[in-house]
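*** Protein under study ***
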Amino acid sequence: MDLNKAMIIGRLTRDPELRNTPNGKAVATIGLATNRVWIDGNGQKQKQTEFHNVVMWGKLAEICSQYLRKGGKMYVEGRLQTREWTGQDGVKRYRTEIVGENMIMLDSKSAGTTSAPSSGPSDTAFGSEAPQEVIEEEVKVEDIPF
């Protein structure tokens, strides 16, 4: 049995870019940044940021384009996919992306952010079943019971 599943929570690095394929299907590309914070062996707080490329298709792409804005927080669930192509300079290029299948906008209306219009959905799940609440909490090694 194989499994290809990606679940991330992060902030948009730019507004979603919506395009249509030649046959009319909507596709949105999204940049998401995720942060990892930990305490190193010297007791110093460390931070690492990862940047992810996300692709949404169809109605989900249109919703992302309509409601999401740079700096907004979102949950994305999907699968990893690597594309390859040859650039104009003849060099073969690769790009690994998350093909989004579900998403939740995590910014609240009352937060005063511009990531979701006041008339649009907020803390809303799209796609198939997805977690309704995501709690951010750092897990310490001492807390693991085994």
Q: What stands out?
A: Residues 110-124, 128-136 have pLDDT under 50 and may be disordered. Helices lie at 58-67.
